[in-house]
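User: Can you fold this complex?
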Amino acid sequence: MTASAFPADRRRRRAVLAALAASVPAALLAATIAGSVSVPPADVLHVLTGGAASDPRWQVVIETVRLPRAVTAALAGAALATAGVQMQALFRNVLADPYVLGVSSGASLGVALLMLASGGAGGAFAAGLASFVDLVGLGRLGMVLAAALGAAAVLAFILVLARWVRSAVTLLLIGVMVGYLTTALVSVLLATADPRWAQQYIAWGLGSFGATPWPDLAVLAPVVGAGLAIALLSAKHLNALLLGEDYARTMGIRVRRVRLGTMLAASLLAGSVTAFCGPIGFLGLAVPHLARSALGTSDHRVLLPAAVLLGAAVALGCGAVAEVRALPLNAVTALLGAPVVVAVLVRGSRAGGAGGALR
Amino acid sequence: MTGEPQGLVLRGLAVGYPRRGWRRRTPHTVLSGLFAHARPGELTVLLGPNGAGKSTLLRTLCGLQPPLAGWVCLDGADLRTMDRVRLARSLAVVLTERVDIALLTVRELVALGRHPYTPATGRLGEADGEVVARALETVGAGHLAGRRLSEISDGERQRVMIARALAQQPDLVLLDEPTAFLDVSGRAAIIALLGRLAREQGLTVVVSTHELNLALPVADVLWLIDRAGRLHVGTPDEMTRSGIVVRALELPT
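Assistant: Here's the predicted assembly.
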């Protein structure tokens, strides 16, 4: 007998991975069919397989609206779920997710600073940001840039702290506090902002997969791809971290380097998605737990690929539901995610302490 | 290597916490001037009152914190100059930290010990599987291999953690209070297991414990830290006869 799994366990894992791999194209198809205008599924299939739709209008709808939206959802779901697995492994905490790093609040801060600048009341930094954004053209792209810069700034701050702070829990709490701080700053800025911008900010803050045309995807896809590659290659190190940093160190792990690399990858994943889609809650928190329960293991060598696939499928599903019912995306992810997290916590406390059970 | 003493050697070792940050100017020394030798094939038991610095010493011995002065040598090599992987293949630990990962089988947990040997993908080969199985058999936990960690008792969990350390195929195993949280029979079984590991596998085993009564019959050598921070080394016989044990641990006479 080889490896560390019993044949029965291994069969279950292969079956789960195969089912997940099959569910992603199915979800992609469903998400492309779903929408405010009804397009015949047969036409969707035709276009997806390289053919032409029976009506040129549908062709346009599918190619320029539905497909980019579905691809964005798949990328965002995979990215957020993977970043969630990474954060939960790093902080050894079931409630860790990409946003504890302050990535989303950093992104919000960037967007709010941009609004302040455009309102003309800003300081030197905001004015500089505004002129830079003017250069590349105000509007959506400016928002995206500001969000990415804000996320990167908060992340750089946390990464600098990570060099001195040894304890992951302390780092987690610092991340939460930085989140509060930036949220407070955003409220202050919102109060003084141009209403036009405030409106755009609120729209971004609702979260959406539908605002990324192909040129945006040409940026998002490689960034997410790079982040996923780093994550999948780090499975062995994340496994060693399951036992805690001291055990990991005695097994030959360079803990700081692994922590830095993991945070960098997670922020690439979560930061880029937040910049393009707005803050999307619960996918990063709930999908890793769902993947663990389905697989029955915390082994990152299977958990990471499963989270990539399940994240994509769940995000596509949530996106489709939000589209058909015209609901805010974050409401759908919360309706799905919050009960999952509660179930995890209840089961965890039954098994003796919320911290341990589902790592 | 013939001239070098085998096993774990402490030479003028001082342990404690180095200066860190901008406020703490001087290092905080917990124990200093330590000389001792733990030999392969022997069970060395580290005894001392609470707060005497047993954990700090063990953390230094396994490389988790640097010595403030002196040397720790393993089979003649300075611990500080050994590279990470070689160190991980020579030395394994069982720490006090409670490991509680519900969704991991016993076999998977023990397999984590193969980390210093597996390729970058973490893939376990045939040989790794055999090492894991053998480690589980050695601690008498072969029948638990397929169980989840949430389904085994505290005593079983401690055996499994020892098996994980053995899966690293070390020369030296360091254990920090492995008998804490166990019932009396569980404690005796773990101490006896450690004695067997040392003698049958030729390992250097250093274990810290409060369990004087259980340790005395099984230990080959005692390292005894008294309240003044002095380290006394000797066989259980010598130390009990000279009365050092009673004085150092302030036992009622």
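Chain A is about 75% helix and 0% strand. Residues 5 and 11 of chain A are 9 Å apart (CA to CA).
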